[in-house]
UniProtKB/TrEMBL annotation:
CDD domains: REC. InterPro entries: Bact_response_regulator (IPR050595), CheY-like_superfamily (IPR011006), Sig_transdc_resp-reg_receiver (IPR001789). Keywords: Phosphoprotein, Two-component regulatory system. This is Response regulator.
């Protein structure tokens, strides 16, 4: 179901194909979508833009990296009303606790079926902050 008013999303993932697929999917549903493929680009977009929701991968530069948490922290500092979804193939209860402390609304396992992700995004955007 398309949003009533265009909503602004930021997709952050080091896999450019995934950014493209998610961007096309959400654009076709009526969202305005930007994307970033690394930490610096994501932080610059967060600093310059206004997003209703950010979807970020946890690991952008290696097997032990956690740039998604840095992005979450910056999003929360600059735009407390922005919703944050963290995608990861490495979810643990400890990660969930740390992410929640940084203001992440939802940690989802990767890969995430597009229809399921769309439902989560819609629910987050409709719920009061």
């Amino acid at each position: 179901m398309p949003p009533r008013v265009p909503r602004n999303l930021l997709i952050v993932d080091d896999e450019t194909v995934l950014c493209w697929v998610l961007g096309r999917f959400f654009s076709s549903a009526g969202y305005e979508v930007d994307s970033a493929t690394d930490l610096d680009e994501a932080l610059e977009r967060v600093k310059r833009g206004r997003y209703d929701l950010v979807i970020s991968d946890l690991r952008l530069s290696g097997t032990q990296s956690e740039e998604g948490l840095i992005i979450a922290e910056r999003v929360r500092e600059s735009s407390p009303a922005t919703r944050m979804v963290l995608l990861t193939a490495f979810a643990t209860p400890e990660l969930g606790t740390r992410a929640q402390a940084l203001g992440v609304d939802l940690v989802l396992s990767k890969p995430q079926p597009l229809p399921d992700l769309a439902v989560h995004v819609s629910q987050l955007l409709e719920a009061p902050r």
